[in-house]
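Example record

Each entry pairs one chain with its bound ligand, glutathione.
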Amino acid sequence: MLRIWGRTNSVNVQKVMWAVGEIGIAHERMDAGLAFGVVETPEYKAKNPNSRVPTVEDDGLVLWESNATVRYLAAKYSAGQLWPADPGERSLADRWMDWATAHVQPDLTPVFWGLIRTPAEQRNMAAIEAAAERSAATWRILDAHLARQPYVGGQQFTMGDIPVGCFCWRYYALPIKRPELANLAAWYARLQARPAFRTHVAMPLT
Ligand SMILES: N[C@@H](CCC(=O)N[C@@H](CS)C(=O)NCC(=O)O)C(=O)O
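Structure tokens for the complex follow.
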């Protein structure tokens, strides 16, 4: 049985839970991180020295780093589906996982933390608005890409859609100004039609 440590409102835990839900892997999830603690205990640190969530255990193998974990689950349990069989096709999907970390996360995280996890009187609205504008410029890149195909890697939903899809939920759920991005919105609607997305990602931001 797959064991997953991590609170449900963590975007990095959501990536793993969504993949688990798509594949239908039997699992148990234990709350950990922020208010739940756990991550600083010696037992947890022995598994994940970063004291971060998620941490996953599969048959004695311990995994951390959410994107690497999604890749592992896709490769082991969803070859030919979440994990495209052809290395070239796989790379076209895979690069959007790194893109989410390298380009989406740096500007979206300060907006999320500023508006959702910072008391109103302590918010730096100028910094939040500037980050939201930079974030919009990043989403335009994916919007242009999605003019040519329904999913980030091509014609099929793959692991490549998962990290960036989790961030997209946050982007649309945040009370910020957003440009009209028709292709992004259509892809986002396709994600929302997926039961595993609705169960593990589409929840109020906390
Ligand atoms: N690069 C790591 C980042 C992990 C990370 O920073 N997780 C956050 C939650 S999204 C965390 O553990 N925060 C501290 C906590 O929850 O205690 C990954 O993708 O797994």
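The chain is about 55% helix and 10% strand.
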